[in-house]
Specification:
With about 725 residues, the chain is α/β, with parallel strands linked by helices. Helices cover about 60% and strands about 10% of the residues.
């Protein structure tokens, strides 16, 4: 997480970037405005010269279409779509409208080859495709046909004709499809009639073969061979029951043969067979035994006659019961024999009826299949005839798959070009291109734009920022705010001198016209105002310019001193400004560099350093000739004047290297001719200059004592007194 200072730094950098972008726009305002005007005017001209086009629109409604005839799916068919046609269906209609068939019909009906002179049929067709536009109104089944043309009447007529041609084409297609479907249906009906007749003949032959009557239109339930199947099932049931009875009799007889007497009697009584005496005899025996027990209970003894009679009667009844059991066994055997005979007959009958049922089933299958085929074919034929009749009736009902809701009208105003849109786009594009070109030029521009650029690339301090259009100070009032910039320059020179004795400074620039001469004159004037005895030495022996600032004759000067035995007093002139002296260049020599590189020139520099507090030497541009390099090697310090936004950074590096290569020392840079109105980062200079400029009540020229005190305060040393012999008298 960033701390407070880091966040403030980031915010400051972001704000600086925003200001830089705004600064680029201000600096390149002319380029942006020019680009904007050029593109905007181009858009205006294009909009003006573009041919005007008028638009007419026909509104159609796409009605439901129907599927091909389906003989088994009703008489009227089913719609292709739901409440609204599908997107794919509408797209198909677009293709039909734009098809060559539809458009060729329009070309022929409107005679466009004659109406549009110079167009043959193919060219007219291509032009129609180019001016036609179809569009669906969202969530509806409506289609708009739009035509744009330079002639408003042609636009209306073509739009109307396309809508009508499309409608006629769709109607014809619908009738054609319906007719083709009806022909196909009639053909199928005839084929079905032949098929029904064939199946009827085949079915009747089967009816005759099986001998089952069939009446057309009467539904008969059941099926052939059903009675034989029922009889077979009854016989099989009788056989099953006989076999069960036989098994039961055999089981009973086996039980009678294996049981003991008492068990045999109980078993025989339980059989309950018709004609059996066993149950009655058993009941009598039980009654006799009960009576015997009753008599014994009454006190009669074993020898009592009644008891003896009862015993004799019981014995007889036991004998009769055994005899009845024997009779019962024989009866069962007789029944078993009868059952066996019946079972054999039943088996024979079952086999016979099974054969009959199988034969009838085979005949029934052929009958049923033939009957079903015949009835199905007859029902299909009936349905197809019904559909055919319904379709014929439906064809007589008027149908309109396309409805023209709105006929195209003649346009009053052109729809193309759209003046407001085109001009707005031109303005937007012009502004965008202008800004883009401005930033591109700024990207290509490698000149010095700020103090940071100078200090970053040259690694030397910026001594002062001089505003644009600064005049010559000694010709202005001493209270001019522009003088404050040079006072700052004077102060920074004092503080950046490592040695107070280094008082000779040459002022150079990379190219001509960067303002070094003006800077020198104004700096000298400000230093002289501050009490410094200042010498301006015009060493620009190529194109001297300093003498023009003071309207001084340039015929005698530095070159005369270097080439003759003149004394300094003969060539150094007193200017109208106190403490300010001037050594003109003199007559221009043939070899300026050789003259400046002489011993006498070096002695001159050393001499004037002793005589003056500050020696300012003007020189030609260092990149053009070698004079400035020679001067940089002879004086103590070199000050580079850089015009704002002029030379590229690599050229400034060459200026510095040229000074350092000859052993010169660069004290700093003066950023000159800064347009503070466009470069807002420098506006505080002018505001401060104005705020701190001397008032009218103050004396702009300090006294010699105040000047000496100022020098002592700045340099830390007192100015050495000069002998009267060393004073220059002019």
């Amino acid at each position: 997480m960033q701390n407070g200072p880091d966040r403030q730094t980031s915010a400051s950098e972001a704000s600086l970037h925003a200001v830089d972008y705004w600064q680029v726009l201000k600096n390149r305002y002319g380029v942006i405005l020019l680009t904007f005007l050029l593109i905007f005017m181009t858009a205006a001209v294009i909009t003006y010269v573009l041919p005007k086009k008028y638009e007419s629109t026909a509104l159609l409604q796409v009605n439901h279409s129907f599927v091909e005839l389906d003989p088994l799916n009703g008489a009227a068919g089913q719609p292709m779509t739901g409440a609204s046609p599908s997107h794919a269906y509408i797209q198909n209609q677009f293709k039909i409208i734009e098809s060559e068939k539809t458009l060729l019909r329009v070309v022929e009906r409107l005679d466009l080859t004659t109406r549009w002179r110079g167009f043959d049929r193919d060219m007219a067709l291509l032009k129609l495709k180019g001016i036609l536009k179809t569009e669906q109104i969202r969530n509806t089944d409506h289609i708009e046909i739009r035509i744009r043309h330079q002639n408003r009447e042609d636009a209306r007529d073509v739009a109307k004709e396309i809508a009508e041609s499309y409608q006629l084409g769709r109607n014809a297609d619908e009738r054609q499809r319906a007719g083709d479907a009806l022909d196909a249906l009639e053909s199928e009906v005839r084929s079905q009639e032949d098929l029904v007749e064939d199946k009827r003949r085949h079915f009747h032959s089967i009816v005759k073969a099986v001998g089952i009557p069939y009446i057309e239109g009467i539904y008969t339930s059941g099926r052939m061979g059903q009675s034989e199947e029922v009889m077979l099932k009854n016989s099989e049931m009788q056989q099953f029951m006989a076999e069960e009875k036989k098994s039961q009799l055999e089981n009973q007889i086996e039980q009678l043969l294996t049981l003991r007497d008492e068990e045999l009697v109980d078993f025989a009584e339980g059989l309950q067979l018709p004609g059996s005496q066993v149950p009655a005899l058993r009941a009598r025996l039980q009654q006799s035994r009960l009576s015997l027990e009753t008599m014994k209970a009454s006190g009669l003894g074993r020898k009592h006659p009644s008891i003896e009679m009862a015993l004799i009667a019981q014995k007889e009844m036991n004998e009769d019961l055994k005899g009845a059991v024997v009779v019962l066994r024989e009866l069962l055997k007789t029944q078993l024999g009868l059952v066996n005979g019946q079972l054999a007959k039943i088996k024979d009958r079952v086999e016979e009826r099974r054969f009959d049922a199988v034969d009838k089933a085979l005949q029934s299958q052929d009958y049923v299949e033939a009957k079903q085929d015949y009835e199905t074919a007859k029902a299909m034929l009936s349905q197809m005839k019904l559909t055919n009749s319904a379709r014929r009736i439906a064809l007589k009902i008027p149908k309109n798959p396309i409805t023209i809701l709105e006929d195209p009208k003649m346009a009053k105003d052109p729809v193309y070009p759209k003046v407001t849109l085109f001009l707005s786009l031109g303005a937007a594009v012009g502004l965008i291109f202008g800004v883009a070109i401005a930033f591109f030029l700024e990207y290509l521009d490698t000149s010095v734009k700020s103090l940071e650029d100078v200090e970053r690339y040259l690694q030397v301090p910026v001594l002062a920022v001089i505003p644009k259009d600064v005049g010559v100070l000694h010709k202005q009032s001493g209270m001019s705010p522009d003088a404050e910039a040079y006072r700052i320059l004077r102060t920074n020179i004092e503080f950046n001198r490592n040695n107070p004795e280094d008082n000779s400074i040459t002022i150079i620039s990379g190219g001509a016209g960067e303002g070094k001469s003006t800077t020198l004159v104004n700096l000298a004037y400000v230093c002289a105002q501050g009490g410094y005895t200042t010498l301006m030495l015009d060493a620009d022996l190529r194109r001297p310019h300093l003498h023009t600032f003071f309207d001084i004759n340039n015929s005698v000067g530095l070159t005369n001193y270097l080439t003759t035995d003149l004394m300094l007093e003969d060539v150094i002139l007193q200017t109208p400004v106190d403490n300010l002296y001037f050594l003109p260049s003199g007559i221009l020599p043939a070899d300026a560099a050789g003259l400046l590189n002489s011993r006498r020139m070096a002695e001159l520099i050393q001499d004037v350093k002793q005589r003056f507090d500050l020696v300012l030497v003007d020189s030609p541009p260092i990149l053009g000739v070698s004079d400035a390099s020679v001067l940089a090697s002879e004086v103590d310090l070199t000050m580079i004047v850089v015009q704002h936004r002029k030379l590229p950074r690599n050229m400034l590096l060459r200026v510095k290297q040229a000074v350092e290569n000859v052993g010169g020392q660069v004290i700093g840079v003066v950023l000159n001719n800064v347009d503070v109105r466009s470069d807002s980062q420098y506006q505080y200079y002018t505001s401060y200059y104005t705020y701190y400029a001397p008032s009218s009540d103050s004396d702009p020229v300090p006294s010699p004592e105040a000047a000496a005190a100022e020098r002592a305060a700045i340099t830390g040393t007192s100015s050495p007194p000069k002998d009267d012999d060393d004073e220059l008298n002019y």
